[in-house]
Amino acid sequence: MSNNMLLLFIDSLPYELIAKNNLFSWLSFKGPLRPGVGYSFTQKAEILKGQQPDQLGYLNFWYLDAEPTAKLNIVYNLTTFVRDIFPFGDKVLHYLLARVWKKVANIPFEFIGRFNNGVPSSYAPDNPSILSMGKWEIVIGDDLDSPNPDSAAVALMQTKIESASEDRSFFIALPQLDKLGHLYGPDHENYLEHARYLDSQLQKLTEQFLQKYPDGVVCSFSDHGMLKVTESIHLSGKLFNIPGGRRAAYWLDSTMLRVWVETEEEKRIIHERLKTEKHLHILSEAERKEYGVTLKKFGDIMAITLPGIVFSPNHFGIRKPVGMHGFHPMHQAHQAFWGMVQSNRTPQIENGKLIKTIDFYRELLAQKELNSI
Ligand SMILES: [Zn+2]
């Protein structure tokens, strides 16, 4: 039996938006997909590899890496001095340093050298995933170096399907909607227009694929939703001061705060302070277990901003986006979508049902007739 698959991935498309605007009506089965905690890198790995961050060993892009070196401590002491005298000295120094050393990002100087970035791509052929099982033709919009990566990716995929041999599956990753969402927000016509464009383009791709592989299966998904940013908050570094003059290491993504401490007492002190921050939801032990983010390397304390609120500046950058994702996985507008076209293999998931990333991974395995990767 053939197990040709066409797998369509759209970065940042909320199920809510699909349902409200009756998009992707050519998908015979679809519903909301509950993402995990974190950003695209983690979500894609959860869906394509069936692993949560605890098994993956990474969460988001930046991670706590090492103790600061003595050399960096000197830099830190100097920059603290500059910051104390010139309130904007910190920003100027970051700007200048980041021009020659990208890894500086917007990280407080005392932590530079302790954080590092770079996680493995879920698309890499040597990284076990659905995409490393069997023969795939893979088109990643981001790799195409085009001002319109989505249309370039669709055009390339058309030629790949046309010329492919019998035993092929196809994966396409479309990055543009995410960028439009950050730039304009999900309520903007440009965002909705592009979602409609993808609807029609992917339907055409699906028809082309099914004409060539009548027994093939077509599955589609996004990794999270997109919300309009309503407020940005600045979190003072003083919140992480520990008696004795030290500061606990902390990392601010756009919507996620992670803190590392050395003792239970330090954890208690910082936890108490954070509890009074009304814009934050501190992840409970039960939630961390549910989303598979229990490792200490992900932080002793983890908190997410409430829907629509972002940290700005954060350690990743200083720009405030118009739209953002990375909010609580149970928030409706933050939920992604899953979808399938009717085939010989009826999905085990009911139409319209809210499922988790791991459920969709299992469905992909079943559709591909695999037991594991
Ligand atoms: Zn994004």
Primary descriptors:
373 residues, alpha/beta, Alkaline Phosphatase, subunit A, Gyrase A, domain 2, 2 domains, seven-stranded mixed beta sheet, four-stranded antiparallel beta sheet, 11 helices, 19 strands, 20% strand, binds zinc ion
Describe this structure in words.
The chain folds into two domains: 5-57 and 120-226 and 334-367, Alkaline Phosphatase, subunit A; 230-320, Gyrase A, domain 2 (2-Layer Sandwich), CATH 3.30.1360. The longest helix is centred in the middle third of the chain and has 24 residues, at 189-212. With 373 residues, it is an alpha/beta fold. It is elongated. Strand 12 (249-252) and strand 13 (256-260) form a beta hairpin. The protein contains eleven helices and 19 strands. It binds zinc ion. Residues 12, 178, 182, 325 line the site of zinc ion.
Give me the secondary-structure topology.
Elements: E1 5-10, H1 15-21, E2 29-34, H2 40-49, H3 53-56, E3 62-64, H4 70-85, H5 89-100, E4 115-117, E5 135-140, H6 149-163, E6 168-174, H7 176-184, H8 189-212, E7 217-222, E8 227-228, E9 231-233, E10 241-242, E11 246-247, E12 249-252, E13 256-260, H9 264-275, E14 280-282, H10 285-290, E15 301-305, E16 309-311, E17 323-324, E18 336-340, E19 355-356, H11 357-367
Parallel strand pairs: 1-6, 1-7, 2-19, 5-6, 9-16
Antiparallel strand pairs: 2-18, 3-4, 7-18, 8-17, 10-11, 12-13, 13-15, 14-15
Helix pairs in contact: 2-11, 6-8, 7-8
Bound molecules: zinc ion.
Short account of what is shown:
The chain contains eleven helices and 19 strands. It has 373 residues and is of the alpha/beta class.
